[in-house]
Design a protein that fits this description.
Strand content: 25-35%
Order of helices and strands: EEEEEEHEEE
């Protein structure tokens, strides 16, 4: 479906781009299951979407949205090996599902015209709270 891309080794511009799609995405908690690989889209790299690849671990309450979320494991580890995220932030990596494909296409059509072809842009949509919860700028 989508290959999660690591942050490319060329300078990255952090530029907050509008995201009218993710905050209104109607996706249920049940859409994702423990063990599935997902990606959280962070921006555009050379005309393609890129983001953070993670694995769904367990149900977890997403305090910023006061809704059911998922505990995710970052395979690269580090200080924030685990984060909690709302399901609308997630996109399946390997499983081909209509909702994720539609969301990816819509994001790509929205973002590509707003970035230079060779640019790497972090759209600035997500932050991590002190509780290691991933929060979209529209949910703060």
């Amino acid at each position: 479906m989508i290959d999660p891309l690591p942050l490319p080794e060329i300078p990255t511009t952090r530029r907050v781009l509008p995201d009218p799609l993710t905050p209104h995405r109607d996706i249920t908690h049940e859409h994702f299951r423990p063990g599935e690989q997902i990606v959280v889209i962070r921006g555009v790299a050379r005309g393609k979407l890129w983001g953070d690849a993670m694995r769904v671990v367990a149900p977890s309450w997403h305090t910023p949205t006061d809704e059911a979320g998922w505990r995710l494991r970052d395979p690269d580890g580090g200080q924030h090996s685990y984060v909690t995220a709302h399901p609308r932030y997630l996109v399946h990596v390997r499983r081909r599902c209509a909702d994720c494909l539609i969301h990816l296409r819509a994001l790509q059509e929205h973002l590509r015209p707003r970035t230079a072809r060779e640019a790497v842009v972090d759209a600035g949509w997500y932050a991590r709270t002190s509780l290691d919860q991933l929060v979209h700028i529209a949910d703060r």
